[in-house]
From TrEMBL:
<dbReference type="InterPro" id="IPR029045">
    <property type="entry name" value="ClpP/crotonase-like_dom_sf"/>
</dbReference>
<comment type="similarity">
    <text>Belongs to the enoyl-CoA hydratase/isomerase family.</text>
</comment>
<dbReference type="InterPro" id="IPR001753">
    <property type="entry name" value="Enoyl-CoA_hydra/iso"/>
</dbReference>
<dbReference type="Pfam" id="PF00378">
    <property type="entry name" value="ECH_1"/>
</dbReference>
<dbReference type="InterPro" id="IPR051683">
    <property type="entry name" value="Enoyl-CoA_Hydratase/Isomerase"/>
</dbReference>
<dbReference type="InterPro" id="IPR014748">
    <property type="entry name" value="Enoyl-CoA_hydra_C"/>
</dbReference>
<protein>
    <submittedName>
        <fullName>Enoyl-CoA hydratase family protein</fullName>
    </submittedName>
</protein>
Length: 244
């Protein structure tokens, strides 16, 4: 079964996360298939830019707790998006949770519909947004992140834009993206590649400095009793024992 649908229009390759039954959760299989698709885009001289989007009502629900990717595989995927020599544009018409925000922050330009919602839910299952901090922390407002990282509460597209997680949002996300994609199509491939490298240098510094430590932190937290209780409670649709 294909988990990433592909299409192309005038040099823009669209990769759609296509596992709506799991709310496009990041399973080992989905992460691997998306990585392969991005590799293909990187090698294809006819691809000017990539749009990362989704089917169903959720862009990405975070890690698939039944079939999670290895932390280093998720790190590699996020770095691949950042390092790709072509702009990656996120198109969101649904909800984004946990690891999905790491994908969003890895993209160069991000657009969402006005009714999309966002949440860093890791704290609610006893872990931390460790690996995704590699892309989120360099690009978002620290004060906004302190609130949403620590509370796990949902926030709106308007708040995501104020925090630096979204480039734009609106009632019609495709209308908002039309001038962006037109601009990318008019730009030279060499110019896009080198300009993206300038923009992502700070993010890649975070990978070089922190990836190993954050990967180890993620693995350690997921092996704890609190995380097991949090994940079990989530799957059973009940409050964990610590909820007041």
């Amino acid at each position: 079964m294909t988990l990433v649908a592909r299409s192309r229009d005038r040099g823009v390759e669209t990769l759609a996360l296509d596992s709506p039954a799991t709310r496009n959760a990041l399973s080992a299989a989905l992460v691997g298939e998306l990585a392969d698709a991005l590799t293909d885009c990187g090698k294809d001289g006819d691809v000017r830019a990539v749009v990362l989007t989704h089917t169903g009502t959720t862009f990405c629900a975070g890690a698939d707790l039944r079939d999670p990717p290895a932390p280093d595989a998720l790190v590699a995927l996020l770095r691949q998006i950042v390092e790709l020599r072509k702009p990656v544009v996120a198109r969101v018409t649904g909800h984004v949770r946990a690891g999905g925000l790491g994908l969003l922050a890895a993209c160069d330009i991000t657009a969402a519909s006005r009714d999309a919602t966002f949440a860093f839910t890791e704290v609610r299952i006893g872990v931390a947004p460790a690996v995704i901090s590699l892309t989120v922390l360099p690009r978002a407002d620290p004060r906004a992140l302190a609130r949403y990282y620590l509370t796990g509460e949902r926030f709106t597209a308007a708040e995501a834009a104020r925090a630096g997680l979204l480039t734009t949002y609106g009632d019609d996300v495709d209308e908002a993206l039309a001038p962006v994609l037109d601009g990318l199509r008019r730009s030279a491939p060499q110019g896009l590649a080198e300009t993206k490298a300038l923009l992502t240098a700070r993010v890649l510094e975070a990978f070089d400095r922190d990836a190993a430590d954050l990967t180890a932190l993620s693995a350690r937290l997921f092996a704890t009793p609190q995380a097991r209780e949090g994940m079990t409670a989530f799957l059973e649709r009940r409050d964990p024992v610590w909820a007041l």
